[in-house]
Design a protein that fits this description.
By secondary structure, this protein is of the alpha+beta class. It is built from 14 helices and 19 strands.
């Protein structure tokens, strides 16, 4: 095995001495309890390519990292030698307000990109729940969509170009910088959600949209998730100016309390009309106005985890969501955050036997024809499970794609479906 000192010397020759160093004890580059042998911070695409060529030649496993907010997603890495930080690749390359497109580097944070675009009255429709540190590249790699998906589309819908560095150090491009540019297979859709196992995302081009003239939230408290799901379906049926609809639930000794957050965005007239309809429909679903200082995301504690916590993401048909929530909430009284329009449900448990709860949760999901993915759990539990569940029927095709893009298996090895 190549010595750590040799690795650092070789990487320093590529990126400069101050940008290649041993991982410290800050936990910033730790992935599921594993610490890399070295951290490298390239400052250009060519340096990223140089690092990957070196890693390929030496057989060193590299995990690309942006803001580090999604390190918990995926299986345990089978190996982890290099933390490839993209924190120094964070510029906006090109913004054409008239063409409604922007090209930026992968290390820029979602928050900073949003701030820069809003100066021009535009935005990329990322969900604000990504947090201040989440990077554009990390959000794409993890395919992190949110409750605004029904209104603005998924990441795969408004990403029109991606520049990648392959496992052997080649700089490639998929898509382009104009909206109508697809010819042949759209590789952008393949890269999004691949968790850095097919290449290192270094640049992306997005469609942008105007910032809404007015945004407003209407918060409603309800007694049952069924009433909330029915109200959400009616709101979407009426074609209101909805930015997103999100449902949260938390249990205590007296039972569950439910909060439906309806966010409205658009012109002043559209928002006013939509707000009146939301308020007018609420009594029919036994909903009551809630305090304006409470949001469903704030009430969901799934992002604040200790060593015994478990966070799962389920997906089912929207028509089946209410019944599924009813079954899940009886399992150790978890915290719940749901997207009624898409059938997405995120459930967190704290201070529980993770293995037992997960087994029962997967059984409930199977009985309701729902899929289940473990988004966060203790590394000790990850040693015994595949967080994605059983491999899908297309797994052999996925294995072949991985072999073509990363023949030496050095890009985030073991983290994807079936431990690819």
């Amino acid at each position: 095995m190549i010595a750590q000192a040799t690795i650092l010397d070789d990487l320093s020759a590529i990126v400069g001495g101050e940008h290649a160093y041993p991982a410290d004890e800050s936990q910033r580059f730790v992935v599921d309890g594993m610490t890399p042998r070295a951290v490298v911070e390239p400052g250009s695409y060519e340096e990223v390519a140089g690092v990957m060529r070196y890693a390929s030649e030496q057989g060193l496993a590299a995990i690309p990292l942006g803001g580090g907010t999604k390190r918990h997603i995926g299986n345990l890495p089978s190996r982890y030698d290099l933390a490839l930080s993209l924190s120094h690749i964070h510029q906006i390359i090109e913004h054409e307000p008239a063409d409604l497109t922007v090209t930026c580097q992968a290390g820029i944070s979602v928050a900073e990109l949003d701030r820069r675009l809003r100066v021009h009255g535009q935005r990329v429709p990322f969900d604000v729940s990504h947090g201040q540190q989440a990077s554009v590249g990390g959000v794409l790699a993890a395919n992190t969509n949110g409750p605004s998906r029904p209104a603005y589309g998924a990441l795969r819908d408004f990403t029109i170009g991606i520049r990648m560095v392959t496992g052997d150090g080649r700089i490639t491009r998929a898509g382009g910088k104009v909206v109508k540019n697809v010819a042949g297979f759209d590789l952008c859709k393949l890269y999004i959600g691949s968790l850095g196992t097919l290449g290192v995302i270094v640049e992306a081009t997005f469609k942008v949209m105007p910032v809404a003239r007015l945004e407003r939230s209407v918060l409603l408290s309800l007694d049952t998730p069924g009433g909330a799901c029915a109200l959400s379906a009616e709101l979407h049926r009426r074609g209101l100016a909805l930015s997103h609809v999100q449902l949260s639930g938390r249990g205590d000794a007296t039972g569950y309390s439910w909060l439906l957050e309806t966010r409205l965005a658009g012109s002043e007239g559209a928002v006013e009309r939509s707000e009146n309809e939301v308020v007018g429909l609420a009594p029919g679903s036994h909903a009551q106005p809630a305090g304006s200082d409470v949001s469903s995301t704030d009430r969901f504690s799934g992002e604040h985890f200790d060593d015994s916590s478990l966070l799962c993401r389920f997906s089912t048909l929207p028509s089946r969501l209410a019944a599924f929530i009813g079954a899940v909430q009886r399992l150790e009284s978890p915290d719940i955050l749901a997207e009624p329009a898409t059938g997405i449900l995120r459930v967190s448990w704290h201070e529980i036997d993770g293995a037992t709860v997960l087994e029962r949760a997967r059984q409930i999901a199977a009985s309701h024809s729902a899929t289940a993915v473990v988004e966060r759990c203790p590394p000790e539990l990850k040693q015994h499970i595949d967080v994605f569940g059983d491999p899908p029927p297309a797994f052999q095709l996925m294995r072949s794609v991985k072999q073509q893009f990363d023949p030496k298996g050095i890009l985030s090895p073991g983290r994807f479906v079936g431990r690819l």
